[in-house]
């Protein structure tokens, strides 16, 4: 490649007669400069010789004109050849320098091409990286814009939620304030309800309504206590009916008309029957045990008056409410009257038993009997304050009248079974009643008076077959 290039350059120099590239000052030929310096005197001498002429302006004497012209042409040709030779030498030098410079530049061009290719690749890689980065940047900008949009939406939503929260908080505070007011009203209402309950408990319902089972259990304990008291104190005594005073005889006959045949069968049953009849008359049949007689009569009169204007249910509620007041205050307000009632009953029982058995009383026997009498009073009061009507079953046995055993209301303490054939057809005869029973009329609210329930059966002694 360099050779062809050199040939073309050399050819071009020959045609044009000069170098296509100007010679730099640093490559000027020293020989040329010497020749130039040397050519100056020659030229001067030539010029001097040439210009010599006659003063008159003609040709010098002795020299023919054509020879002078030939000599001048020869000299000129020699100078031209010399000049051409110098120029050719200078051209060769310049050509060599040019080739060197061209080779150097070619190497530099190759290096620069490689460098340019390297940087082109680098540029291409960087441009691709730039494009990728720019694409990523655009994507990130879009995502950022989307995120900013979402952030704006979230901030807007948060602001809305904050406003809602503030509104809810305000509403909650108002609601809580209203709740507190309602709670205060509720507490006030509860206090009122409590007061009303207390009032109703004290005035309307009285004491707690006793169940049938509870009343029956209390009655059974009272009957067992009486039986145990009689057995423990009069188990070995003898009864002398013939020596009884007339007054005592009349009292015993009033209480137990069939006392003579009963005494022949069992003295224990006779004594139980006597005491039970006294308890029924003095306690269970009284309007309210322990209440003075004149006060009891006033209550009875009021109840009879009300019965003409109101229903039986209303009358039962009135009686329960009124007597509940007495029942609550009875331990204090009726204490003296209750003690007098207990003393009076104790004195009458002891009078009858001393005359019948000739056994004097003693403090231990009286104390235990007082407890029985007091328990009977408490039970009688409890039954009276109920809205339902509780009545005492104490059949009266008369000599001229036959009393038939009733399995629904009576319990035979003589050992007879309720399933016996005579009991079923009503042929068993009752000799005496040793302890009363209880029947309930109506429900717990004093209504439905047609309802009837035997709470406790009366204990009776039937005649043997």
Automatic annotation (TrEMBL):
UniProt name for this protein: Uncharacterized protein
Extent of Low complexity compositional bias: 40-54
Query: Superkingdom, according to UniProt?
Result: Eukaryota
Region called Disordered, residue ranges: 1-79
């Amino acid at each position: 490649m360099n050779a062809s290039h050199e040939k073309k350059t050399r050819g071009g120099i020959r045609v044009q007669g000069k170098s296509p590239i100007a010679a730099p000052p640093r490559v000027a030929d020293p020989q040329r400069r010497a020749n130039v310096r040397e050519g100056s005197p020659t030229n001067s001498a030539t010029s001097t010789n040439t210009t010599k002429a006659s003063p008159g302006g003609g040709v010098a004497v002795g020299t023919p004109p054509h020879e002078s012209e030939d000599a001048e042409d020869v000299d000129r040709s020699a100078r031209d050849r010399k000049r051409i030779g110098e120029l050719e030498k200078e051209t060769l030098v310049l050509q060599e320098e040019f080739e060197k410079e061209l080779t150097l530049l070619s190497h530099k061009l190759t290096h620069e091409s490689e460098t340019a290719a390297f940087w082109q690749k680098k540029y291409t890689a960087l441009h691709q990286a730039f494009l990728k980065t720019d694409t990523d940047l655009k994507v990130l900008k879009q995502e950022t814009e989307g995120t900013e949009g979402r952030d704006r939406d979230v901030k807007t939503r948060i602001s809305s939620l904050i406003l809602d929260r503030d509104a809810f908080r305000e509403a909650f505070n108002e609601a809580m304030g209203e709740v507190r007011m309602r709670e205060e009203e509720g507490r006030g209402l509860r206090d009122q309800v409590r007061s009303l309950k207390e009032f109703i408990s004290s005035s309307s319902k009285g004491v707690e309504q006793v169940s049938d089972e509870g009343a029956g259990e209390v009655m059974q304990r009272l009957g067992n206590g009486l039986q145990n008291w009689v057995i423990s104190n009069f188990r070995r005594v003898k009864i002398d009916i013939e020596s009884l005073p007339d007054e005592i005889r009349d009292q015993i006959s009033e209480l137990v008309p069939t006392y003579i045949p009963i005494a022949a069968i069992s003295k224990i049953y006779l004594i139980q029957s006597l005491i039970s009849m006294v308890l029924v008359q003095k306690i269970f049949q009284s309007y309210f045990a322990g209440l003075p007689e004149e006060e009891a009569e006033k209550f009875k009169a009021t109840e009879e008056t009300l019965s003409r204007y109101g229903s039986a249910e209303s009358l039962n509620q009135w009686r329960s409410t009124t007597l509940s007041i007495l029942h609550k205050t009875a331990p204090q307000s009726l204490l003296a009257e209750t003690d007098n009632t207990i003393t009076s009953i104790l004195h009458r029982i002891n009078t009858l038993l001393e005359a019948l058995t000739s056994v004097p009383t003693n403090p231990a026997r009286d104390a235990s009997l007082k407890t029985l009498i007091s328990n009977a009073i408490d039970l009688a009061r409890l039954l009276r304050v109920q809205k339902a009507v509780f009545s005492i079953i104490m059949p009266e046995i008369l000599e001229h009248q036959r009393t038939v055993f009733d399995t629904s209301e009576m319990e035979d303490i003589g050992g007879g079974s309720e399933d016996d054939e005579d009991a079923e057809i009503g042929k068993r005869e009752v000799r005496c009643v040793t302890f009363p029973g209880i029947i309930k009329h109506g429900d717990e609210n004093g209504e439905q008076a047609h309802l009837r329930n035997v709470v406790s059966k009366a204990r009776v002694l039937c005649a043997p077959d």
